[in-house]
Amino acid sequence: MATPLRLLLIEDFEDDALMVLRELRRGGYDVTHTRIETPEALTHALDTSTWDAIIADYALPRFDALAAFALVQRRNLDIPFLIVSGQIGEETAVAAMRAGVHDFLLKDRLSRLGPAVARELREAAVRAERRKMQEQLLLSDRLASLGLLAASVAHEINNPLSSLMANLDFALNPLEPGVALLPEQEQALRDSMQCAERIRDIIRDIKVFSRPEDKQLGTLDVHRVLDSSLRMAWNHIFHRARVVKDYAARSLVRGREAPLGQIFLNLLVNAAQAIPEGKSGTQEIRVVTRQEETGHVRVEIHDTGQGIPPELRERIFEPFFTTKPVGVGTGLGLAICRRLITEMNGELGVDSELGRGTVFHLRLPVAREESASAPPTG
Question: Are 312 and 323 in contact (CB under 8 A)?
């Protein structure tokens, strides 16, 4: 079966262009090509389309292959760039290779064009994978640094918060009998205590989320982890949708609390961002858990957003792929979420219908004969 190849061909002679295309098809490629002859046409082609390879004649009336290659480099595009020429001197060939051109061939020796293109496509794929891995490492380092910072900030807040809550409790429950508060004073103090308790819960959640990663699986109460993630995501949710919880009776699973909480947080924020602001009266995010006969707990996060087009549903799990506008953070990333769930012997998938919304669903093994880990204190 022929390999698809999107080719940008820089050539001013029609016969030479046909010769290059014929050789590529003989080499097993199903070529879709655009032929150009000017710098303006090259600029337009690079800005408006995606190319698997570029093949250029060395000398054209208005520019040459090295000038064309410089245009590609200025856009930071890693596209295999090969020069095919009728005549090219050794010094010119050396200069081209030093500039970064991937290969050069003579037009009377085109039998190696197919293998040369295949080699450069393989090497370009390796370079792209290496870049993705480097970007993922940088993201992991950044998340780890943020986790350390969050844990430090949470600790610093916790000490004065404890004093604040103790003072509020003292004001609400004075030691001297017969000392009565005005109703307005008591209500104000109770409201303050509720706010302080919410801060305490958020600090507890931050400590869990920023805990150093432990590869050991433990027994978790998935409902408690979900509730913690809902609290962390609340500022993203409350002005977009109401939250409906539909929890099963049993909720103990095998997993790791910190990454599972991060996964739930990522899915909840994604669900919120799929819904326009100001729609909280008509839109909802539904969080469902179910016990399955297969020995798994299934967790579903539904949103009533616009849905995901069919052609993008599997791509959303590719590293760094996003449908979010520029400037909106990538968060943990669905690729990392799926990897973390797999490490917990679970599964993560998605169902979506345009105009109806999206459901992210994950399955985790049920925990047996163990008690759930206690929430962090302090």
Answer: yes
Q: Give the pLDDT confidence of 42-96 residue by residue, as tens digits.
A: 999 999 999 999 999 988 888 889 999 999 999 999 999 999 987 777 777 788 8
CA 351 – CA 368 distance, rounded (Å): 29
| Closest listed residue to residue 199, CA positions, set 207, 37, 79 | 207
Nearest to 253 by CA among 208, 287, 298: 298
Q: Which domains does the chain have, with CATH numbers?
A: 3-129 (3.40.50.2300), 216-378 (3.30.565.10)
With a cut of 50, which residues of the chain have pLDDT below it? Answer: 326-327, 330-331, 370-371, 374-378
Residue pair 354/312 in contact (Cβ under 8 Å)? The answer is no
> Using alpha carbons only, what angle is made at residue 279 by residues 224 and 226, rounded to the nearest 5 degrees?
10
Report strand pairing: 284-291 vs 242-246: parallel
Closest by Cα among 344, 377, 340, 332 to 219: 344
Q: Looking at the DSSP assignment, which residues form a beta bridge with residue 173?
A: none
pLDDT in tens, 280-305: 888 999 999 999 988 999 999 999 99
Q: Which sign, positive or negative, has the C-alpha torsion 250, 207, 324, 72?
A: negative
Tokens of 323: 């449908």
**What distance in Å separates the CA atoms of residue 378 and residue 321, rounded to the nearest whole number?**
38
